[in-house]
Give the backbone structure.
Amino acid sequence: MSVKWGLIGASTIARQFMINAIRAQGDGEIAAVMSASPERAMAYAGENNIPLAVSTLDGLLGADIDAVYISTTNELHLEQALAAVRAGKHVLCEKPLALSSSDARKMVAAAKAAGVVLGTNHHLRNAGAHRTMREAIAAGRIGKPIAARVFHSVHLPENLQGWRITKPEAGGGVVLDITVHDADTLRFVLGDDPVEVSCFTQSAGMAGSGLEDGAMCIWRFKSGVIAQSHEGFTTKFAGTGFEVHGSEGSLIASNVMTQKPIGSVLLRTAAGEEELSFDREDLYARSVRQFHTAIRGEGRPAATGEDGIWSLTAAEAALQSASSGKAVKIDPKLGSMN
């Protein structure tokens, strides 16, 4: 049985990654796309060989589809997801799930009540590099984890320099765009939950309207691990990376905070250095495959709605810390990592 998808948002990310990821599945097809602009919807459908173009949410949800992928601006996610859930559609939503964790909780609760699958499209936990790091830590290959560092400051491409750097009301800024990813990836790789964060933000010249285009965070995790992360839109020549340091070794991953299945993972211990191999499956294809498995009742999305609540709560705490100048506790009532 095929899964028929409707795209809510004629977005760059859907064009660059998700359309191919859905079509890469033996049981996936794209049936419709929605944009508030009828002209954009028609042009996008034509360029991407999508049979139906609509300009209203009702038009999309009334089509013959089983699931929706939401990649509109952040302030629209809540109402679009709730409407899809009411229509009995499964929902894979871009991060952050909403503008607030309380709204994200509403989305998760509605999906559970309706018996549909809700997933958060945190692509990085689908990277072979990060799964290999998680497995190495769980197997004790670096001993007891002590500290971690994430380097995820990049240069926001000119074609994406729109609402992310100009519209606070749309959920712009680097924290809701990138810090949410780093919080999720730290949780996933460490198998641990953050309990406190201190954050500095900056405006280094790209973002306007009081938005931040850079952030540095220090995290404390339940196990006692401390971590630092650097997120940015303004560093043209920085590489990305992820390091985890333990009592018996270190994992040093380079060029892995990316949408592509690239980079390397080095394990360094008393025995020397070993480059760890990992699969190079497309991150978005794996995300869609996991989501289809969840629809069939045979598993769960790579990142659940609850994972999306966690990452958004962590990002909210980072923003609160930056504005208050104080460390902020992260709500422990969310439950622990599965």
